[in-house]
Amino acid sequence: MPNSRMRLIIALLAISVFPFALHAQAAAPGSPAKKQNTSSVSRVPDFSGAWAIPGGASYDPDDPRGNTLEKLPMTPWALAKLRAARPGFGANATFEAVNDPVQKFCDPPGVTRMWMYPWNFSFIQTPDVVYILYEWMGFWRPVALNRKHPKSPDSTWMGDAIGWYEGDEFVVDTVGFNDKTWLDQVGHPHSDQLHLIERFRRVDHDTLEITLTFDDPKAYKQPFTSKRTFKFSTAPAEVTHCSVTEMQSFDDEVMKTTTQTPKK
Amino acid sequence: MKYGISKALVLAAGCLLFSNFALAHHGVSGYDVEKVIQVSGTVTSFNWSNPHCLIHLDVKDSDGSDKDWIIELAAPTLMARFGWTKDSMKPGDTVIAQTHPARNGATTGLSGFASELLKFVVNGHELPSH
Fold first, then answer.
1. Which of A102, A203, A212, B36 can bridge B11 by disulfide, Cβ–Cβ 3.0-4.6 Å?
2. Is A208 inside a domain boundary?
3. Chain A to chain B, count of Cβ pairs less than 8 Å apart?
4. What ipTM describes this predicted complex?
5. CB proximity B2 to A under 8 Å
6. Beta-bridge mates of residue A215
7. pLDDT digits over B27-66, tens only?
8. Is residue A154 domain-resident?
9. Which among B108, B32, B51 has a CA at the least distance from the CA of A117?
10. Which residue among A185, A235, A257 sits closest to B81, beta carbon to beta carbon?
């Protein structure tokens, strides 16, 4: 083949490959043009996939089933709240006359209690925000990666969450909760002073572990820590809605039947 | 047993593992989860909806009359993950179902929640269980 033709072929091949090379460079993790913290981006842990939440009851690390309550270091305020709660689970479980706001009114379970609802969740990791998506009610939390908390955050159902990566962990720091939710399924309370730290770590491909630290001086005399473990799920994502009318219908049809003395 | 219940089974103590965990939107203390009974009847409705799928069965009483049994299952999303669909049964089907009976003697039972699904045989075919 003449040299001029060979040089033309080589030039045409180079031109066709060049755009892909540019794209690969631009898309490469850790690209300085895209990321603020290039030293950690190349080591961003991968939490992709769906994660199955097993059932749960209590955040007392010594009594996760909630068989014996009033063991956490509660303040008098929190103890009164716990004793007023009529949950469906744990040592104070009742089937009828519960005052669980989720069961009664489809209120949001809240961030901490959501980790005990046996539905799946997923992460969407972007450079500036990590989104946590829950199947239960389609709730989602944005975790901002590039700012601090507002000086005076609003009190909301899900709080204000900021986060960062530390090695193989994703750390989420949340404040600004309202006090309308229960900490867990057995009725442990939290106040609007709750400062929650969640550390997510992918132990292996199929296992995700979260360590929660609860710092709530109005409710607990000292911070305490608890853990939850989730398993990788291949189930397709679906949203489960909580409807007050459906809950009321179920209450009339099943709950009352199962609690009232049957007619002979 | 009064209501077309062919036999009562005592579940292994392992069921106690689930008795306090939040595996339904409500607690399970209204049911005797340490006990499993078997109920046979004809489907009158199969409600595939939240918060819990419900089966209504006509079950023959000892005097030959039909009693309405309500069998509670998990939410549709969770039932689908066990392998059930909204077409797993329909009115007129014959069902043999295992269930945890209500403590107050009502004709209701709990057969499925997030981590457990008791055995159902519909028209002679066994559905997925867990």
1. B36
2. yes
3. 109
4. 0.82
5. no
6. A195
7. 888 999 999 999 999 999 999 999 999 999 999 988 899 9
8. yes
9. B51
10. A235
**Contact status, residue A70 vs residue A76, Cβ threshold 8 Å:** no
Q: Which of B26, B29, B114 sits opposite A55 (nearest CB)?
A: B114
Task: Kindly report, residue by residue over A51-70, the tens digit of the pLDDT.
Answer: 999 989 999 999 999 999 99
- Say what percent of chain A tops pLDDT 70: 83
Assess if residue A220 is contained within a domain. Answer: yes
What domain range includes position A121?
50-255
- pLDDT of res. A158: 97
pTM for the full predicted model:
0.82
Residue B36: per-residue pLDDT: 97
pLDDT attached to residue B1: 37
CATH code of the domain occupying B8-126 = 2.40.50.140
Q: Which residues of A touch B115 (CB under 8 A)?
A: 54-55, 118
What is the secondary structure of A174-212 as a DSSP string? EE-B-S-SBSSTT--B--TT-EEEEEEEEEETTEEEEEE
For chain B positions 82-101, those within 8 Å of chain A (CB to CB) are none
- What parts of chain A have a pLDDT lower than 70? 1-42, 261-264
Nearest to B106 among A96, A98, A257 (CB): A257
Secondary structure E strands in B1-115? 8-10, 35-47, 54-60, 66-72, 94-101, 108-110, 112-113
Inter-chain contact B108–A93, Cβ cutoff 8 Å? Answer: no
Q: How many domains is chain A built from?
A: 1
Among A254, A257, A259, the strongest candidate for a mutation testing the B interface, having the largest count of B CBs within 10 A, is: A254
Residues 6+ apart with CB under 8 A from A258: A95, B30, B31, B102, B103, B104, B106, B108
